[in-house]
Amino acid sequence: MSVTIKDIAKQAGVSYSTVSKALRDSPLVKKPTKTKIMKIAEELGYQPNVAARSLVQKKSFTVGVVWPSVERVAPSILITQINDLLEAHSYTTLLSINKIESAISTFNRFQVDAILVFGENENDLTNSKIQSTVPILYYGVQEDLRFPTIDVNRRLAIKLATKYLQDIGHKQIAFIGDLSNFDPLQKDKLIGFLEAMNVEHASDLPDMIIPTNGLEVHDGYLAAKNLLTKQSSITAIISGSYDLTRGILRATTELSLKIPEDLSIISYDNIPQSENLEIQLTTVGVPITRIAQRISETLLTIIEGETVQHSIILEPELNTLDSCAPLSNNHESS
Amino acid sequence: MSVTIKDIAKQAGVSYSTVSKALRDSPLVKKPTKTKIMKIAEELGYQPNVAARSLVQKKSFTVGVVWPSVERVAPSILITQINDLLEAHSYTTLLSINKIESAISTFNRFQVDAILVFGENENDLTNSKIQSTVPILYYGVQEDLRFPTIDVNRRLAIKLATKYLQDIGHKQIAFIGDLSNFDPLQKDKLIGFLEAMNVEHASDLPDMIIPTNGLEVHDGYLAAKNLLTKQSSITAIISGSYDLTRGILRATTELSLKIPEDLSIISYDNIPQSENLEIQLTTVGVPITRIAQRISETLLTIIEGETVQHSIILEPELNTLDSCAPLSNNHESS
DNA sequence: TTGTATGCGTTATCAA
DNA sequence: TTGATAACGCATACAA
Q1: Which residues in 245-264 of chain A line strand D, with CB less than 7 A from it?
Q2: Is B5-48 a CATH 3.20.20.140 domain?
Q3: Residue A18 beta carbon within 7 A of nucleic strand C
């Protein structure tokens, strides 16, 4: 049986409405009474009942996050950051790993103040009839045109990377990315590459597009090892993800290739380089902190009932560090 | 503004208490009235308000899951299964990725019916004063002696595996596991190995204990490749995790080793083999379905207010498939 | 500065 | 078979 404000009131010898005010730090309560009440609440281990509060306030100070694919590691850092940001505004986040429809329904019953949806990229179920009184924000994929969406411009990211390499003289540039599933997010990166390379189809650059069988470290390793042992004309690599890059670096180390002297590398990446790699990577992408920031802001905005831009696209930035070098002449002749 | 039973009552021309009964499918309401009400509720997109319901019922039909380290992939399959199992009993699960203390506090305010904690293995904060009106169940690590815990017997798992290999004639058995962090869960596996091998310390078997630098596929790959290229006396490998095993298999494939003819392998594993490996692995561990089953049951039991065994240890099973073979004489001589 | 009364949406008890 | 009403825990407008 949990303790209520009435229990505190009894202990403190005041009315329970006074307790309610005191706990909310209202100026309508004298300091001594307030401190006394606070102390008793503390002692009794009082926890305000969210149900009761949200019933009267019509607000739960809670954001529901729909996360149907827990297995995927990538968004987990993002979630953590969003959680922290929202917490600073005294919002709690709660996750549901149910299917999107049922999760949204749950959150509606719980009267959360907003819902953030991490879409499943696999199946775009635009047909599903989502009913929600609560405002919804999508991240990643536009699944439902009725609700605003935030996404990052992956295509431009890879395009930027490619152009940069071209600017510093590279022509033989390889793109290593996962094209094994029909993940539109991964495909988009390839398109950015094709655009920068000024070709229509992937088949126009058979030697420069190196598909992997997944997004794991080892996939990058295999692709790079394969590429670098048999083909020496490549002077730069663009990697579609951080994990692939780690694999690529393992391959170059094994082959005793020096970065950036023998090979330039740019990695698509959102995550600030926490792990100490052998080298400071040149990366391209939208920093995850910026994504988290923008999502949190937008969430708070739609909670206020204000409307937001329907489709928010976050633009990537190139972060030039040590893993790229201009193409020197002696390199070209090798 | 969401629709309430009063809105439905008005539409249907009945009292709202009748609506309440009808929606709960009470026998106290005539069929025609019931169907009529149901229909209107449907049309209006009615969603029952959990706050109001749990306020009066003192029950939210919700289980809170504390999951402070979203990044870790391993438990995610488990959570998914538990979620499904509980859903079948009409319970909803909600996850929190906050720190354990704050997550538990949140769930208390939400008046969930039970809390499941996936402990952080890194820091055992037994000292933290956790206040909870709601019953708690720990999984993995016993962090707080006041609450019941479910765990799997990793030590026995590896011991079983080792003994089995010994039974079929192997003597030169290697254990590949992650000992890089001070993760007690991983350490426990090593102890099982040492017990079966009948030695006190890891230093007694320098050539047979192969530590990796992590639990990733590539870590297993490196360890195995290193081991198998320089040391040929090993006839069997016990792998501390499924991912390590995948790496090990890549190494053996590269080295053209035949499993089980040239080398026997047993993998620690909870997950039913979904991925089609080249070979049907002999595995040891507690099947994840069994873990999920037991956790769900226990959760439901403590929700009923009944007490459960304080420390539940799930015992592993050996699942002998194709990756192990008795040690033949010609092998021994090689 | 404190206390009283009302209502949030729902279930449950009792009366009709 | 239906309807009126109290109660859940809390916040708040209003009275004291």
Answers
A1: none
A2: no
A3: yes
Complete DSSP assignment for A267-323: EE--S---S--SS--EEEE--HHHHHHHHHHHHHHHHTT----SEEEEPPEEE--TT
Identical fold, A5-48 and A154-286+318-329: no
Please tell me the distance from the alpha carbon of residue A200 to that of residue A151, in angstroms, as a whole number. Answer: 25
DSSP class of residue A97?
Answer: -
Residue owning tokens 């006839």: B235
Instruction: Output the CA torsion sign for B197, B203, B209, B213.
Output: positive
Cβ <8 Å between B216 and A221: no
**Sequence-ordered alpha helix ranges (H) in chain B:** 5-12, 16-23, 31-44, 50-57, 74-88, 100-109, 154-167, 184-197, 217-230, 242-254, 288-303, 329-333
Q: Is A206 exposed, middle or buried (0-12, 13-18, 19+ CB in 10 A)?
A: exposed
pLDDT per position as a tens digit, A321-333: 888 989 865 444 3
Name the CATH architecture for the domain at B154-286+318-329. Answer: 3-Layer(aba) Sandwich (3.40)
Architecture of domain A60-151+288-314: 3-Layer(aba) Sandwich (3.40)
The residue ranges of every structural domain in chain A are: 5-48, 60-151+288-314, 154-286+318-329
Q: Which residues in chain B have their CB less than 8 angstroms from residue A79's CB? A: 70, 97
Tell me: the pLDDT tens digits for A97-149? 888 889 999 999 999 999 999 876 555 455 567 789 999 999 987 667 789 99
Q: What's the alpha-carbon Rg for chain A, to the nearest Å?
A: 26
Query: Which strands sit side by side in the sheet containing B92-96, from one edge to the other?
Result: A311-314, A149-152, A136-139, A114-118, A62-66, A92-96, B92-96, B62-66, B114-118, B136-139, B149-152, B311-314
Spatial contact of B92 and B48, defined as CB atoms under 8 Å apart: no
Distance from residue B56 (CA) to nucleotide D5 (C1'), in Å? 14
Give the dihedral of Cα atoms A189, A191, A196, A200; nearest 10 deg.
160
How many beta-carbon pairs under 8 angstroms link A with B? 113
Which residues of chain B fall short of a pLDDT of 50?
124, 330-334
